[in-house]
Specification:
Layout (H helix, E strand, L loop, with lengths): L1 H16 L12 E5 L6 E7 L2 E3 L2 H8 L2 E5 L2 E5 L21 H26 L6 H21 L3 H30 L12 H19 L10
Antiparallel strand pairs: 1-2, 2-3, 4-5
Helix pairs in contact: 3-4, 3-5, 3-6, 4-5, 5-6
Length: 224
């Protein structure tokens, strides 16, 4: 019913945009136009058996708006703008899925805990042993499996490939310190200062974290 009313008013607006030919016949009687449910009304003028209302009054009682474009008078009725406005086209790349983002953050957290544990052990001169490193590795491996399963879109799959590389690099560095401990019970506290693999792990982690913040895939060279 509302749409029918809008169409009726639109047709009336079209009629108002047409020039009204001057006639010698005087208006026959005065009347008013009211919109159901609205308190306002507009005066109607009947000429030759037809009713006319000025467009400004029509806009007022329908809560519409008027604008002028050249020799056109354009009346916009409430609710009609949405049918004419075209959706804005953007080139925004597809975002990472919410399920994958959660799994990615879980995996990054597991890798960070793995690394921090090894760094702390080395800097406090505690042994790096398979007994506790193995648990951290298995936790990160399990979360990587979940992230891989959660990758359902192309951006997800591109990101999980980088995440898998981060896990591999972390495992290589963990194996390095396990091997060092098997030969000597001491590891220099500054072993991480100039460790290129550790720097690569940190840079890749920052890139993946930034990707998670923007929810968009962006290739990170340090993850390769």
């Amino acid at each position: 019913m509302k749409n029918r009313s809008v169409r009726t008013l639109a047709k009336l607006a079209v009629l108002l945009a047409l020039p009204i030919a001057a006639t010698a016949q005087a208006p026959q009687q005065a009347a008013t136009l009211a919109i159901a449910g609205q308190p306002d009304h507009a005066s109607l003028v009947q000429i030759n058996g037809k009713s006319y209302v000025d467009v400004e009054s029509l806009a007022r009682i329908t809560h519409g708006s008027i604008r002028f474009q050249g020799n056109q008078t354009i009346l916009t009725l409430p609710g009609s703008a949405s049918t004419t406005v075209q959706p804005v086209q953007t080139n925004k790349p597809p975002q990472l899925s919410e399920n994958f983002l959660r799994a990615e953050i879980e995996e990054l957290t597991a890798i960070r805990e793995w690394r921090v544990a090894i760094v702390t052990a080395v800097q406090t001169n505690n042994p790096v042993t398979e007994n506790w490193v193995g648990g951290l590795r298995r936790s990160a491996d399990s979360k990587l499996t979940l992230a891989t399963a959660a990758a359902t879109t192309d951006p997800d799959r591109n990101a999980v490939a980088l995440l898998r590389n981060e896990y591999t690099n972390m495992q290589q560095m963990s194996d390095q310190f396990l091997a060092m401990h098997s030969k000597s019970s001491y590891s220099a506290p500054d072993s991480f200062d100039n460790n290129p693999l550790d720097q690569k792990i940190l840079s890749c982690a920052r890139g993946l974290a930034s990707m998670a913040a923007t929810k968009q895939f962006q290739d990170e060279a340090t993850c390769h």
